[in-house]
Amino acid sequence: MKERIIDHINDPEKLEQLYRDDKNAFESGFEEVYSQNEGSELLKYWKIRLDYNKMPEKTRKANLTDIFVMISACFTAGFLIKIPDIFNVGLTDFIFYAKHAGIIVFSGLSIYVAWTNKVFDIKRIALIMMAYLLLTLYVNLLPPVEDSDSINLAYIHLPLLMWFIYGLVFIDLNLKDKAKRIEYIRYNGDLAILMAVMVIAGGILTGITIGLFDAIGINIENFYMKNIVVVGAVSVPIVATFIIKNYTTLTNKIAPVIANIFSPLVLLSATVYLTVLVISGKDLYNDREFLLIFNIMLLGVMAVIVFSVSETSTNRKKKFNELILFVLSVITVIIDLIALSAIFYRLSTFGITPNRLAVLGSNILILGNLALLIIDLYKVNFKKALIKEVEVTIAKYLPVYLIWILFVVFGFPLIFGMR
Fold first, then answer.
1. Cβ distance 274 to 335 under 8 Å?
2. Which of 17, 145, 165, 40 is nearest to 102 (CA)?
3. At what angle do helices 12-21 and 41-53 cross, to 10 degrees?
4. What residues contact residue 40 under an 8 Å CB cut-off, 6+ apart?
C-alpha cells in the first residue's frame, strides 16, 4: 500500500479510491509516506482527515443482521461443545475437548468473521470448510490416549494451528497484505483484553446466580457449570469479536492504556525475577517443573511485547514505550538464552523426548523473533525508524511459527508414535 500511495501522491481521486478499498492498509502505509513528504498539501489534508477519524465518536448501532449472525455462531459453538452430553461419542470428556475444543471455538469465530468480511465467494467458503473438516478428520484419527507426549503435544498445538486458519479468514485469505496481518495481531490484543473483562464479569454473575438459588434451597451449581458456563466459555470470543467490530471506539481507548501500563510492569517483573534467580541459586537445569514455568513466563512476556508493539504504533506519545519495549526485548532474550541452555543440558543428559524437542523448537523460534525485534527496536530508538517497521517484522515472522506448529501437529505423532 505504501508504494501505491507514493505512486499516486498527487492524485486526489486515486488516493480516495485506495482509502475506500482498504482503510486499515491505507492508514498503515500513509504514516511512513507522510513522514517523508510533510510538505505536500494534499498529504496534510489526509493527515488531518485520518487523525480526525481516530478521535472519539458516537458509537454506532450494531446491525441487526450482525447480531443475528453473532448469536447463531454462539449457538453453533455451544451445540458442538455439548456433543459429549447429547450423544454417546465413545470418548472421555478430556479426550473429546482436547481433540475438538480449538476447532469448535474457532469455527464459531470463523462463521461470524466470514459474515462480517462478506466472504460469500464459493471457492473461499469451500477452502475454509475443507480446512476445518480435514483437521477434524485428522485429529479424530489420532489414538484416543491420555499418556502419550507426542499426541498431547499435537492436541496442545492444534488450537494454535486453528488460530492461523482463523487468521486467514480474518484477513480474507489475503496472504500478501502485511497490513492485514498487523490488523489481525492488533485484534488479538483487543480480544484478549475484552475476553478478560467478560470472564471477570461472567464469574461475578455466576457466583451471584448460584448464591441466589442456594438461598432459596435450590442447588443449580452442577447444571449451571455444565451448561451455562461451558456454552458461555465458547461464546465469549465471538461476543468479544462482535464488540471489537461494532464498537471500535471502546477498544481503541482501552487497549493502548493497558499496553502502556503492562509494558513497564512486565519489564520490572522480568528484571527482578532474573535478579532473584541469580541470587537464589535455583537449579534450573535439573528441576523440570521449574523449567516448564520458566518457559511459560517466556511465552507470556513475548506475547506482551507483540501486543504492546501493535498498540504503541497507534499512540502518539510513544517514545518512552518504545524504549521500554527495546529493553524488555533484551531482557527476554537473556531469559530465552537461559532456558535454551537448560534445555540443551537436559537433552544431552537425558536424551530426546517429544516434550524437550517441542520446548527447544519453540524457544529457538522465539529467540529468532526477538533478535529481529531488537534490531528493529534499536533502529526505532536510536536511528529514527518507525515503530510500524517492528509490526511488519512480526507479521513477516508468523509463517515461521506456522511451519513449526504444522511439524508438531502432523510430524510428532509420526516420528515419536505413542511416546
1. yes
2. 165
3. 30
4. 9, 10, 34
d(CA 12, CA 260): 36
The answer to whether the CB of 25 falls within 8 A of the CB of 177 is yes
**Where is mean pLDDT largest: 23-37, 71-85, 177-191?**
71-85
Longest dimension (CA), the chain: 74
**CA 409, CA 404: separation in Å to the nearest integer?**
9
The domains of the chain are located at: 2-53, 64-246, 249-416
How many C-beta atoms surround the C-beta of residue 284 within 10 A?
Answer: 16
Cα 67 to Cα 60: distance, rounded to the nearest angstrom: 13
Classify each residue of 59-73 as buried b or exposed e, where b means 16 or more C-beta atoms within 10 Å of its C-beta.
eeeeeeeeeebbeeb
Query: Can you tell me which residue has the cell 466472504?
Result: 119
* pLDDT 10s digits, 364-387: 999 999 999 999 999 988 887 777
Distance CA 419, CA 413 (A): 8
What does DSSP assign to residue 91? S
Lowest mean pLDDT segment, chosen from 102-111, 163-172, 248-257, 268-277: 248-257
- Distance (Å, rounded) from C-alpha 293 to C-alpha 84? 32
CA atoms within 13 A on the CB side of 56: 4
Average pLDDT estimate for 326-339: 89
Residue 108: per-residue pLDDT: 93
pLDDT at 220: 92
**CA distance readout (Å), 406 to 70, 158, 292, 344, 385:** 30, 9, 22, 23, 34
Least confident of 117-131, 225-239, 368-382: 117-131
Answer for the pair 400, 183: CB distance below 8 angstroms, yes or no.
no
- Strand runs labelled E in 289-354: none
> How many beta carbons lie within 10 A of that of residue 361, not counting itself?
15
What is the C-alpha separation between 357 and 146, in angstroms, rounded?
Answer: 19
Exposure of 392 in the CB half-sphere (CA atoms within 13 A): 15
Query: From CA 337, how far away is CA 258, in angstroms rounded?
Result: 28
**Lowest-pLDDT range, 38-47, 134-143, 204-213?**
38-47
Crossing angle of helices 122-141 and 149-170, rounded to 10°: 170
Exposure on the CB side of residue 222, measured as CA atoms within 13 A: 2
